[in-house]
Amino acid sequence: MSIFWSNQIDSESGPYKVLIKRGEFIDPSRRNDDGSTRVVPYKLYYPSGDGVTSCPVILWSHGLGGSRDGASFLARYVASFGYVIVHMTHFGTDSSLWEGQQGHPWDVIKGIKITRTTTLNRYKDVSFVIDQLYGWIKENPDVGAIMDMTRLGLCGHSFGAITTQVAAGQLTPDEDGQLMGLREPRVKAAIAYSPVPGTSHLSKDTEEATRSNIYKSISIPMLHMTGTDDSSPLNGIGYESRLLVYENTVNAPKALLVKHGGDHMVYNGTRGALAANPLRDRHECIVRMISLAWWDAWLCGSEAAKSWLLESDRVQGYLRADADLKVQF
């Protein structure tokens, strides 16, 4: 258990100093659309200090146009309580789409077509990075000694959320539009920040027929986070559509956090083209705290964290009127 849920709510950070390592993993077996070899840069946050022993490992997948450098406020917080966080950059859906281009990044990205090959490469980065971490642990024993790969989590924002959903078992179309599974069985729990239904590549008839079926194979505990102002800055998808993933996930423990006035960019720690949100600081605190509780419950086996999430009076006392949490364990 990384926090005493009875008396440390809203602490600024955990007991450990957080350090960072950067690098990249190269996959010679895969190619990008431009023919280049697939490379996955990473940024690894890890706790340091007396008492750090065995830490769960959590992978982070960024949104469209993002990179391994996003959501540092969340990674540093969770890592300070005894977790190793590995942020990935997915080439072809990352900041390289807009860097050096004229105009606002969102406007640039709107004019770019993301191929199905690029999307599937992104999804496959998850298993690839997990594979690489086993060798990385041996080559970096100073950090590897504390990494417990038997307690592996995955989370992501927007495009990173659907990347997480697919790794958790959600079916997705292949390059020919046929549904396929890319479930990563080593992932034990997940968080989807701004979930994405994932039916845009299906035909209208197929979408209606398979909308609920594509989620039935999600089989690990998943926390879904959104907000009442969580519309997509690229296509205008409203937050109600993000609820479909939660509502149609029927074979796994799940929870849904909805922040009142919460927008799309709070999870990344940046604003993009969105106006300043006076609720940002409070929402960041909620995101950090509920995320930590989820990881403690499912990766650390903390009955105290699980009890706190399940006892609506206690968790709602923390959330107040700023958010609502539904839990189905």
How would you explain this protein's 3D organization?
- This protein is an alpha/beta fold.
- It has one domain: Rossmann fold (3-Layer(aba) Sandwich).
- 32% of the residues lie in helices and 26% in strands.
- It has 10 helices and 11 strands.
- The chain has helices at 72-79, 105-110, 116-139, 141-144, 159-168, 204-210, 239-248, 280-299, 303-310, 312-319; strands at 17-31, 37-48, 55-61, 84-88, 147-157, 172-173, 179-180, 187-193, 222-229, 254-263, 323-328.
- The strands form 2 sheets. A 9-stranded mixed beta sheet has the order 1-2-4-3-5-8-9-10-11, with helices on both faces.
- Helix 1 crosses helix 8, helix 3 (116-139) crosses helix 5 and helix 8 packs across helix 9.
- The protein is globular.
- The two termini are 19 Å apart.
Task: Give keywords.
329 residues, alpha/beta, Rossmann fold, nine-stranded mixed β-sheet, two-stranded antiparallel ribbon, 11 strands
Record the SSE blueprint.
Layout: E1 17-31, E2 37-48, E3 55-61, H1 72-79, E4 84-88, H2 105-110, H3 116-139, H4 141-144, E5 147-157, H5 159-168, E6 172-173, E7 179-180, E8 187-193, H6 204-210, E9 222-229, H7 239-248, E10 254-263, H8 280-299, H9 303-310, H10 312-319, E11 323-328
Parallel strand pairs: 3-4, 3-5, 5-8, 8-9, 9-10
Antiparallel strand pairs: 1-2, 2-4, 6-7, 10-11
Helix pairs in contact: 1-8, 3-5, 8-9
Can you identify the CATH class?
A: Alpha Beta
Helix content: 25-40%
Largest sheet: 9 strands, mixed
Q: Would you list the SSEs in sequence order as H and E?
A: EEEHEHHHEHEEEHEHEHHHE
Characterize the overall form: globular
Multimeric organization: single chain
> Structural class, judged by helices and strands?
alpha/beta
**Spatial order of strands in the largest sheet:** 1-2-4-3-5-8-9-10-11
Radius of gyration: 19 Å
Mean pLDDT: 91
**Number of strand segments:** 11
How far is it from the N-terminal to the C-terminal residue, by CA?
A: 19 Å
Q: Output the CATH homologous superfamily.
A: Alpha/Beta hydrolase fold, catalytic domain
Number of domains: 1
Query: Could you name the ranges where pLDDT drops below 50 across 5 or more consecutive residues?
Result: none
- Work out the helix count: 10
CATH topology: Rossmann fold
